Amino acid sequence: MSFLEVQNLKMYFPIRSGILKRTTGHVYAVDDISFSVEHGETMGLVGESGCGKSTTARVILRLQQASGGTVTYDGEDVMSASRAQMQRLRRDMQIIFQDPYASLNPRMRVRSIIGEPLKIHHIGTPAERRERVVQLLETVGLTAEHADRYPHEFSGGQRQRIGVARALALNPRLIICDEPVSALDVSIRAQVINLLDDLQDELKLTYLFIAHDLSVVKHISDRVGVMYLGKVVEIAGSDVLYDFPQHPYTEALLSAVPIPDPQTERTRRRIILEGDVPSPANPPSGCVFHPRCSRMQPDPCQREMPALEGTGDAGANHLVACHFATRYPQAPAAAAAGT
Amino acid sequence: MAERLLEVTNLSTQFFTYAGVVKAVNGVSYTLDRDETLGIVGESGSGKTVAALSLMRLVPDPPGKVVDGTMVLKGRDLRALNDEEMRAVRGNDIAMIFQDPMTSLNPVFKIGDQIAEAIRLHQGKSKREAWKMAAELLARVGIPDAQSRVKQFPHEFSGGMRQRAMIAMAISCNPDILIADEPTTALDVTIQAQIIDVVREMQAQFHSGVILITHDLGVVAEIADKVMVMYGGRTVEYGPVDGVYYNAQHPYTWGLLGSLPRLDLAEKTRLTPIKGQPPNLLLLPAGCPFSGRCGYERPECRDNWPELEIVGTEHGVHCQIPQAERLELRAQLPRFKAQVA
Amino acid sequence: MARSKGDKIVADEATASDSQARASGEKALGLWGDTWRRLRRNKLAVVGMCIISVFLVVGMATEIANIAGVNLAPYDPNQVDYKLSPTGLGSPPSLTHPFGTDYIGRDIFSRCLVATRISLIVGVIAVAIAVTMGLALGPVSGFYGGAIDAAIMRLADVFFAYPYILFVLLIMTILGPGFVNVFLAIGILSWATYARLVRGQILSIKTMEYVEAARAQGASDLRIIFRHVLPNSMAPIYVSMAMGVGGAIVTEATLSYLGIGIQPPNASWGKMIADYVTYFQAGRWWMLTFPSILLVVTVFGFISFGNGLRDATDPKLKE
What we know:
The complex is a heterotrimer. Helix content of chain A is 33%, strand content 22%.
């Protein structure tokens, strides 16, 4: 049993229109996805806007009630947990948000922001809580004197650290990082990424790391899942994903990421995808990617969404949802290619 | 030898606020030729956007003002032009694409109207002709079904398509210079790739110079011919793209390059961040704005702004550290260790 | 939880150039500090604040005096003295009676002074009632949405649909004239403004990430509303309150002018205006003029302050 197991998770948002607010359709934000995260690992979830990765995060934490499927955390069923159980679970599963400017209450001092989880769960005396807040501040690289300030007195990177401190307050074992560095300056991103790395080693944390920046995700994750239009289309180890992408979307995504190396850029093979991402309210039939896919064949691609499964080259370590997944080069050739 | 398309010398733009004077752009110089792409790289507070707005003389006045320098476009100093002459330049000789396609298009006008506006203004065409050209432009930037799309409103376009529409607007009068201010930051990475391609194609067709403003070193590596690295309103390094990436001479450039996670490198090296916070523009030192975060600074760094030091073909840097020492320091950084010297 | 060498580096990363920022007098402004500074620079708002201060001081002083049974005014406002009004038309302003006397010899200045008390009480209490009701219903509406929201907002719509003055008149007719009924009526009829305002704010604050963060920590709805959502929704309420006091004062004046507000022997500016209008036509200008000026100036003060406050709290106008 994995530490975190997501099975057939669905989140369909109803679209209501008209005076009577009838449900005229659904936004298929998360459409039957399954994956698992082992204890102590970092699972990356990557995809572009509308792919459903942020919604997945919220559903796992029950900040949003799922439309279907199960989420099992350390053996416990999250979807059907009672209020008391959920309170207990919340101490174990925390989240770091994307926007450092919107994720901290501007009217609360840092000390209250970080101490709030402790207060909610009635942990410690006020004096003990104060001490713990200082401890947490120091853990994330800030100092005790920062406790009395307001969020607007800090820069984006510092605010994000405060968000991390808040997430750590209850000693969680799983932290979902929802685009934690996308809104930060480039030079500050590395600071926060390193911080998250260090904390994982020290506190034995498990991360679900959600981002659209593939470079960052690959750097910090052990395994990566690629999402497109509410589906997971590929899951593999982060190095393997880069070296042997099997899904055409993954290939296109990888080739679109700019690499800060002029010579590499000049010699790269570029795959440019045609068209735009379809709306999750109106997903294509069959394989969600088929309208933009270079390998598309009307049958079976327009008919049937392929299952997420291994192709036999790497067993369960590399799953892909494609009728025409790229196979691994044959073993001797791979060795000869020197990768 | 053809004359330089654009030569900016010692440009300085300041904002006069109640809290003090903000030296947003401080003595910046660069040149641009046809078919050339200049990447201006920097983070928040670097002054890169203000530098571009200064070129177009779009800096809001008050509180901003271009206080020094010359901007010579095809032999004419843009600072010396009066308002009417400058209006004739904007959109016509220099065009700009902005960052957020959601807000840079007027939601109550059709796309065709917005593109046609520039055409009618600068080329005096009739409404009919301008609309026809607008549809052609939309097709040229790769929007499918352009004839009917041109009659739609911005909210009916996706983010990537809006950005293409903006590019169509920008190129409508065959500008000599195209300024793209973070054109892809708000877009998904696969759409980003499409847009970069469109910009490249348009440049090839019109032989324009492109100024690309961004914080994304990957995009710069992709299409820039030369790079200008800005920090705290100043240029810290300026040179051809290979020079700046492989022979970076300024500690800030090292910091930027070293702090990026690389998709193509297998090893999981720890990133080397730049310590500290982005600069406070009200409290810039007289010397190098990067002192305080540099890690290698000398006592004189805070107070003296060093002259341009040439370190390679058309590659210059502003740094107090003597070059020999710099190269030694650089050799110890992980990113440059991996490189073949 | 001690961390070894990693600590130092990380601390440096985060705080280097922090001291640079603090050092030079860039003070850490509180959340209202920036608002106050912007307010100070708005001349009209400053004038408004001065007017309001004077008004508040005088009003409170006379109220306290009233409770203590003491008269602060130079004369007893209800003291009738026919000698001062030989023609039955009052006497004009003089050194002893700076605002003159009215048709039965009462000192106008003293009457104006004690009328301040009435206006203050009405203004403040009416708004207090309205805000309390609005903040009771508005957050419930905004936070929970759905049927409850619809119900409350339809109720508010009813209150908005009626022309304000007519509605107030209606209530006063039902309740009967009198001091207390005035502010009850005004207060009850104004709740909808505040409810709608706060609901609007809550709808947008509700989606902020810090609210989600609180939920992720297991905060109860009550805690979220009172600790996170409401405090951040109050800014436009304060503005409305400032304007509301001004509006309440005018409404009271109107009611008193129409005869169903303040009753004699209590003096209010509106009542005075009503009483003295005919004398104005006879050329006895001072009786009408002074209360009118006071009324206008006071309300102007509140409106200017309210406007200034609105501009000062508008994030888009930030420099």
